[in-house]
Structure formats: C-alpha cells, structure tokens
Amino acid sequence: MELLDVLVVDDEPGIRSGVERILRNFTVSYPFLEDEIGFNIVEAETGEAAIEIIQKQPPAIVLLDNKLPGIQGIEVLEYINANQPNILVMMITSYASLELAVKATNIGAYDFVPKPFTPQELKASMENIAKHFFLRQMTRKLHKEGKQVRFQFLTVLSHELKSPLNAIEGYLRMMQEKQTGDKIDDYAEPIERSLSRIQAMRNLIMDLLDLTHIESGKRRRDLREIDLVLVAKSALDTMTPMAVQRDITLELVNDEPQPIFADSDDMEILLNNLISNAVKYNVKGGWVKCEAGHTESHIYCKVSDSGIGINEEDLSKLFQEFTRIKNPQSKNVSGSGLGLSIVKKIMELYSAEVKVESKPGEGSTFTLLFPLPNSIIANEGI
What we know:
The chain is an alpha/beta fold. 48% of the residues lie in helices and 21% in strands. It has a five-stranded parallel sheet with strand order 2-1-3-4-5, sandwiched between helices. A five-stranded mixed sheet has the order 7-9-10-12-11. Strands 6-8 form a two-stranded antiparallel sheet. Helix 5 runs antiparallel to helix 6 (188-216), helix 7 runs parallel beside helix 8 (264-280) and helix 8 (264-280) packs antiparallel against helix 10. The longest helix is centred in the middle third of the chain and has 58 residues, at 119-176. It starts with a strand and ends with a helix. The model is unreliable at 375-382 (pLDDT under 50).
C-alpha cells in the first residue's frame, strides 16, 4: 500500500485529531493503480509551522484552515503556489466563510470542505483529491516519456538516414576523382549500390509517412467491402520479381473470395509488409504461402514461409519501431525497421491482432486476426 502525506493545518486540536481519526485506516483504490492508497497525517497548528514542514518535506496534500493565529491560510496557500505548486490544497472552512473558500479555489486551491464535516464528506473529498493527484502525476510522466521516445526516435532516424547518405557521398567522390577509371562502365557497381541505398531511404520515408498518418488519425480511410483474397493475390504479384531472383516459390493457398469490411489501402500495406518480409528473410529455394479465410469468430489471413525464423529475444521486440532481425543470415537484408510496427498499428485500428509463430531455421507464420462481426456476417446471413 502506498501512503500519501497529508498536512492538516488548523489551530483547533479537535479538527486535527478528527481528521487523523477519520483517515487513519481509510484507503482508496483506482482502476489505473495496482496498489491501494492510504494517508499519513502530519499536523500543524499555525501557518508558520505549516510552511516550515513544507520546506523540510513537502506533502502531497494540504488540508488548510484559513483562520489561523499569525499568518492566515490564504497566505500559506499563496506561499505553496509560489514555491511548491505540485502540492494540492483543500481549504477547511466554516459555512460562514464559503465566499473566502471560493476565492481560495480561484487562486489555486483544488477544493474546499466546509466544517463541521462528516466522516463521509471528508472521505469523499479525499478520494477525489487523491485521484487528481495520481492522474496529474501519470499525465506528467507520460509527457516526459513522450519526449524521451521522440528523442530516441529522432536519434535512430538520423542514423538510418546518415549511413546511406555517407555511402552515397563516398561513391560520388570516387566517381568525381575517377578512382576506378574514366569510363562510366567502370562505376556500374557504385552506381547500383547508390541506387539501392536511395531506394532504401525512399522506403524509409514512405514508411515514416504511413506511420505518421496512422498515429495522427488524419489518414483518410475508405471502409467498404473488399475481397481479402484479391488483396493477397495482388501483394504476391508485387513480390514475384523479388521472389524469382531468390528462387522462392509464392503460393496462394486458396482463391475462394473472402469479403471483409475494411480500407483497401490498409489491407495492401499489411500484406505487402508481411509477404515482403517473408521473401527477404527466406532461404534460397524456399517458399511463401498466403491463405485467407474465416472461422466462427474471426476473419484471418496467414503468411507462412520457410525462412530463417526468429529467436525468442527478437520476437519480444518484433513490433517496436526500427526493429530488425539481427543474425548472420539477415545482415544484408535492407529495410526501414518500421514495417511490422505499422502492421501492428493498423491492426489496432480494427481492434484486431497479429500473431507470430516462429522457429529459428524453420520459418515463421504471421496471422492477422480480424474479429467478427464483419461484412462476412451480412453475406452469410448470420
């Protein structure tokens, strides 16, 4: 159980002891937290004593009376706002001072509780203010993590672009200085390598654009009934030249139409990514199979291959951005490292999931699972 420090500032001993008694064994729980939350009560009789405690060990919450000997509660509130703005303040005030309590909320107090208060009233107020404390804490943490993720993303991106640019620059200088000869044919290999790296950068930029559009929610999606099998066939046709170069057999397991209510561009991105990976990470003379169909609960599409497979360590981070399989068999495989993260994000748009089964040296199977109901239900009259 986590304890929140609560400073009770009131010159009436009965109020301070009453708050301590009510909150001593009181706990709250929220669905976004694993542990229950309890309250550790600290007491101060004057505003001066309260400020001294705040300076030494700031509490999470302050219950603050306004009418105090010496400096008033409003002055303590102003000190907190100026020096410890993360502290949440709840004013304790009599019904006759409600106007003052409203003024206090306008200048920074989170809430107020009128006295005399019942245990139920105090508990309800504490549950609300503690909830606000943790939600604000979580929001700030997410914001900070978002900045860190953005920094990491830009760092990796700069590396992904810098490496091929350096290589292209090197090849161009080689040609400029005529290091290999005077004829254009002498530079066929550097030109081919440069074009390959330019294509890789183009693919990276296109993947980044896809990823940005998906995450921003600004990408237009035309949801309509399409045939998933036709999309699979088109993706296989697109990958045929690459497969022929590597002596890899492509097979559409069944050609029975499989209707699905979806955006055709989304489905093309999904299958192009999966089939492209199945070809690139395959072995010479291997095979890639694609199958679409449905069960009672899902529409599915499977892409299987006889490739190099994926080990457990890589499986756990497979859908992270800029992740690539690293082993001797894949060191020469080009790619942006964004394809599978795009696949996962698109599947999330459909409340769907992507599953992976793989064994190193034997191959992999990626399965796209779209939950029913979908257009197939209407077609079959279910």
